């Protein structure tokens, strides 16, 4: 076979270039810290690495969401805890105001302190997060959560019932806020009856009051009929000789509720105390009804009690009822807040657990990705050294081979 100069030159050049390419590839692997420079290097491993990269990015977003959620929940917990302390102060003041020795000036002093607490609670209920959104306004976080309606004197909720949830794992999403509609508005006002009305007979006075709130609440929840209002009407029917029967909507209760009647002697009925005055009360009838249930937020409850404290014209019975209303509703509001504080604690526990799991997944995925794609430093350095030696050998050989010609033998 005839060897030309061009053939020798091209063969030598190809050897040099191939060796340089191998050395450059080893240097790129070392620089980029990966043995897969292109998908063609290892198609199967390349596909797995791509999937792992996507998974790592997703988990990283979950972790960012977890941090954001935890910060928001910590803010809400701080606000509710502060509110809880203020509500306890309001309850103490409401109980103390029942002291019969309090003068009108004393009551006005209590009212002024309650006004300060009311302002503090309003400020807390209108708290904002780091982004400037109202934390208790639901999805409408650009709207102030609560404001006073000057026409009615009622503090009104202006948000909605939305909860902003963030994904912290492929299957778990947690709410980072609670709507004021559930935290503050979903609070039952005190269950009670309408005032007693003398419907027939010679009674000179009648009164009905709640003396055992827990017992009456249980009976109220079991008995109140929102579909048929007449079923909420009760009567104390007085008959000769000196007996009484309590009826519901004009019919006897099952089992019947009857007893001996004595004027001014209390009649006990499911947490209620009913008294009828007058020596000529038999026969006769006294009517009362279960009042429709109401929802009142803590701001409105305190506002109504402040009005009662500043009204010297209230009778002793009316003021006592105002105290009972306030204490019961404050207790309900505190219980509701406690429930949401417990809920926040539960969500934080879930966050911590999922966060730890995601961290473990990240470590495992990174280790698997490293096994698939990361370069072996010792092997890469060895390859570079090998190719450098090969390049030197090829270069030296090329010089010697390319210099051989017929003229060398003639000389």
- Helix-strand pattern: HHHEEEEHEEHEEEEEEHHHH
- Counted by DSSP, the helix tally is 9
Q: State which percent range the strand residues make up.
A: 15-25%
| CATH topology descriptor of the domain at 56-189 and 311-359 | f41 fragment of flagellin, N-terminal domain
The number of strands is 12
In CATH terms, the superfamily of the domain at 56-189 and 311-359 is f41 fragment of flagellin, N-terminal domain
What's the story with the biggest beta sheet? 5 strands, antiparallel
- What is the end-to-end distance? 25 Å
Gross CATH architecture of the domain at 56-189 and 311-359: Up-down Bundle
**Poorly predicted sequence stretches spanning 5 or more consecutive residues:** none
Highest CATH level, the class of the domain at 56-189 and 311-359: Mainly Alpha
Share of helical residues: 40-55%
Query: How do the strands line up in the largest sheet?
Result: 5-12-7-8-9
Overall mean pLDDT stands at 83
Q: What is the structural class?
A: alpha+beta
- The Rg value, from CA coordinates, equals 42 Å
Shape: elongated
Summarize the structure in words.
With 411 residues, this protein is of the alpha+beta class. Among the domains are: 56-189 and 311-359, f41 fragment of flagellin, N-terminal domain (Up-down Bundle), CATH 1.20.1330; 197-293, Immunoglobulin-like. 54% of the residues lie in helices and 15% in strands. The chain has nine helices and twelve strands. Strands 5-12-7-8-9 form a five-stranded antiparallel sheet, with no helix packed on it. Helix 2 (43-96) runs antiparallel to helix 3 and helix 3 (104-125) runs antiparallel to helix 6 (298-309). The radius of gyration is 42 Å and the shape is elongated.
